[in-house]
TrEMBL record:
Putative odorant or sperm cell receptor. Keywords: Cell membrane, G-protein coupled receptor, Membrane, Olfaction, Receptor, Sensory transduction, Transducer, Transmembrane, Transmembrane helix. GO terms for molecular function: G protein-coupled receptor activity; olfactory receptor activity. It is a multi-pass membrane protein. The lineage of its organism: Eukaryota, Metazoa, Chordata, Craniata, Vertebrata. This is Olfactory receptor. SUPFAM superfamilies: Family A G protein-coupled receptor-like. PROSITE patterns: G_PROTEIN_RECEP_F1_1, G_PROTEIN_RECEP_F1_2.
Amino acid sequence: MKPGNDTHISEFFLLGFSEGLELQPLIFGLFLSMYLITVFGNLLILLAVSSDSHLHTPMYFFLANLSFVDICFTSTSVPKMLVNIQTQNKVITYAGCITQMYFFLLFAGLDNFLLSVMAYDRFVAICHPLHYTIIMKPIFCGLLVLVSWMVSTLNSLLQTLMMLWLSFCTEVEIPHFFCEINQVVQLACSDTFLNDMVMHFAAGLLGGASLAGILYSYSKIVSSIRGISSAQGKYKAFSTCASHLSVVSLFYCTVLGVYLSSAATQSSRSSATASVMYTVVTPMLNPFIYSLRNKDIKRALKRIVVCRLPTAF
């Protein structure tokens, strides 16, 4: 493949999980199942929160937003992958690749920000319980979500617009199952120094700031819980943030694992396999973590099932 200065390239080829035709039906079935479980599970969380007035609190407001973002996050990559496997056509248009990249960055950023906002909510609830209703007013909660959308939108817009400046070689092949920005930048024929700088700066600043906020919130939460005298009080305080802590650990551990493994092996196939963890597996497990560990969610889901059963017969 000879490098060119073709800025009008019309399509890319997504080669992720394309090896072995005999495995394609198995991969298709596996990803379709995970995608349907992700959408159905997160829709149940949205339905439970919206239908139960007892769940109209800041914590569940943020959880509902996280469930919506998880559905969108998975939907940016998995449906296109399923279509490609089913049709045996690995092509994605240039415009489709840039669009997929934009929405992937948008919802990945929102996942990151919402987890930090939820950590702040737990910090206020446990460390300042008497001022919780004063601080976490509906307007303030809405503002936190709005700011998360704005910052994530600006970040994804900036990085995708910078992709338009790059020129690509002909017959570009992306060794991934979606247009992952780092993989696409590496295939450019023009200078990518500025793109690399912005990409790493945004990941360090936005991801690092959110993670630092989460760590600070939980350090204060742990200090407050240790100050509670009774064991029952400690358990009750910890149980209110156990689900969120599990989701945070799962999200950041998988993301860090992906980038550490890709940096260590330099294998595109292993990087694509590892990316499945935070693009598909994590959004799929989030509803299970919150529903299994949360009595309020389980109660709301039971009410939905009980109310639907009489109408079904």
